[in-house]
């Protein structure tokens, strides 16, 4: 008997015990997605394609900025030697990533009133008005985030270009890829970029729809940024032919309400606005100027996600109907619904974010592959029935022996932790889940799409 339990048999026993250990969990969590028992094959969506290319796959391979853009950026840094550029880039990157939403004046007043009441109840504090005001201001400075508006002059614009041009290009490219993949017949002719900065949106849009786009409107209040973006398009010089034709630069949004664009983009720009009132006015203006898609992108942080959810709610719940374009709006991506975001309303709120790999512009300090973590919301004009309502995978997929863990945002507005196995859910669904990635859509029929009797008849495990 001793020889029967050699290394080979011990390895087999270990694998068998691991299987036993995960099976009960698999059955328990699988019950959370009662009704998710098969792929959505109503239109024979796979056809002759392999599972790894199912229509919910939206991953974009590691992107690389166009060679012309990389060369122009490197040339501009050589021409304009900025001392300590690497350190400045790191400082600005950290600052932008850690940025919070600015505190509103009403909230400051409320906090000040609370602190004043607290100090008045403190017996050892002298109650002179001047000292009380000083104590309140001192406490506010220590406990309140100090939001500061950045003024992009020529020097800071160069630092921003070196820090954010390639990462911004990667994030916006992923957002455009979502539209191109799901609506391949969409061929926009006009695009407006609010807060255009160094022009990463223009380059990404040209890369995606260069054959059809004939007009790019870049809007940024910083004249230095507009000048830098134009130089990048001209190969790093002030003269010459633009790499992307049909690009126009403005410091203010077009005034006429009749002017609309097929695609309107705001990438990392809502976080640059100092108040909720200004953000509200800006989002409403951008939506009025949207003919088909409004693409909003921010950092993949709680603050960035919060800004996007406010903008999303503003468009979906907006009572203002433009007489020039009364078509309603719906969420094209990433949410498969128009309900409150389950990530935001959870007991421990999380940012709904995604990740895109990219090759950075090869500055001397910047040569390894990078990941851009970002949040996005794509709003569209029309009817929600025009879009797929498959669940969105909101976290990295965990692949384990004979089962797969997927965290899904479903069309009923709830998050589900699905453990999918071939035995319980079928070979097609299991293989589709196994080849899917964070950010993909899982082509399944969710419980809300089943008749009540079907869901009730589904076994628990």
Structural account:
- By secondary structure, the chain is an alpha/beta fold.
- It has three domains: 29-56 and 388-457, no CATH class; 67-86 and 158-386, Rossmann fold, CATH 3.40.50; 105-143.
- Helix content is 39%, strand content 15%.
- Helix 8 links the parallel strand 2 and strand 3 (247-250).
- Helix 4 crosses helix 5 (129-143) and helix 6 (154-182) runs parallel beside helix 7.
- The longest helix is centred in the middle third of the chain and has 29 residues, at 154-182.
- CATH fold type of the largest domain: Rossmann fold
User: What's the overall average pLDDT, rounded?
Assistant: 84
CATH class of the largest domain: Alpha Beta
Number of domains: 3
Helix share bin: 25-40%
Runs in which pLDDT lies below 50 for 5 or more consecutive residues are 1-5, 16-35, 448-461
Termini distance?
38 Å
Provide the succession of SSEs: HHHHHHEHEHEEHEHEEEEEEEHHH
Spell out the CATH superfamily of the largest domain. Vaccinia Virus protein VP39
* Beta-strand content bin: 15-25%
Radius of gyration: 26 Å
- Quaternary state reads single chain
Describe the main β-sheet briefly. 8 strands, mixed
Counting DSSP E segments of at least 2 residues, the number of strands comes to 12
Number of helices: 13
State the secondary-structure class.
alpha/beta
Globally, the shape reads globular
CATH architecture tag of the largest domain: 3-Layer(aba) Sandwich
């Amino acid at each position: 008997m001793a020889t029967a339990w050699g290394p080979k048999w011990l390895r087999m026993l270990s694998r068998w015990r691991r299987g036993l250990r995960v099976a009960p969990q698999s059955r328990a969590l699988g019950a959370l997605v009662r009704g998710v028992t098969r792929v959505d094959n109503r239109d024979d969506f796979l056809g002759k394609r392999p599972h790894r290319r199912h229509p919910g796959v939206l991953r974009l391979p590691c992107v690389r900025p166009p060679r012309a853009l990389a060369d122009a950026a490197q040339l501009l840094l050589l021409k304009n030697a900025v001392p300590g550029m690497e350190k400045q880039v790191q400082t600005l990157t950290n600052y932008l990533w850690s940025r919070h939403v600015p505190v509103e004046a009403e909230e400051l007043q409320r906090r000040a009133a609370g602190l004043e009441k607290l100090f008045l109840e403190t017996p050892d504090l002298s109650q002179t008005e001047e000292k009380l005001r000083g104590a309140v201001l001192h406490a506010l400075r220590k406990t309140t985030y100090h939001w500061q508006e950045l003024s992009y002059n020529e020097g800071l614009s160069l630092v921003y270009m070196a820090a954010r041009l390639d990462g911004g290009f990667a994030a916006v490219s992923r957002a455009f890829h979502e539209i191109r993949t799901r609506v391949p017949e969409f061929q926009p002719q006009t695009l407006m970029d609010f807060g255009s900065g160094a022009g990463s949106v223009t380059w990404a849009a040209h890369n995606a729809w260069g054959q059809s786009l004939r007009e790019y409107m870049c809007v940024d209040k910083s004249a230095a940024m507009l000048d830098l973006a134009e130089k990048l398009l001209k190969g790093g010089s002030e003269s010459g032919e633009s790499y992307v034709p049909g690009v126009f630069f403005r410091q203010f949004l077009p005034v006429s309400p009749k002017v609309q664009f097929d695609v309107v983009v705001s990438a990392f720009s809502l976080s640059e606005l100092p108040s909720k009132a200004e953000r509200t006015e800006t989002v409403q203006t951008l939506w009025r100027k949207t003919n088909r898609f409004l693409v909003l992108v921010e950092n993949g942080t709680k603050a960035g996600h919060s800004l996007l959810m406010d903008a999303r709610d503003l468009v979906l719940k907006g009572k203002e109907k433009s007489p020039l374009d009364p078509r309603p709006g719906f969420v094209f991506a990433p949410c498969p619904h128009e309900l409150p975001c389950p990530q935001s309303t959870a007991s421990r709120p999380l940012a709904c974010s995604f990740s895109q790999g990219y090759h950075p512009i090869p500055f001397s300090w910047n040569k390894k592959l990078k990941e851009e973590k970002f949040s996005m919301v794509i709003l569209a004009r029309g009817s929600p029935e025009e879009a797929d309502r498959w669940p969105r995978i909101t976290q990295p997929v965990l692949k384990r022996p004979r089962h797969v863990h997927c965290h899904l945002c479903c069309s009923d507005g709830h998050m589900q932790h699905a453990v999918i196995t071939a035995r319980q859910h079928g070979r097609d669904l299991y293989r589709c889940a196994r080849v899917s990635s964070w950010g993909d859509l899982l082509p399944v029929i969710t419980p809300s799409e089943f008749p009540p009797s079907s869901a009730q008849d589904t076994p628990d495990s």
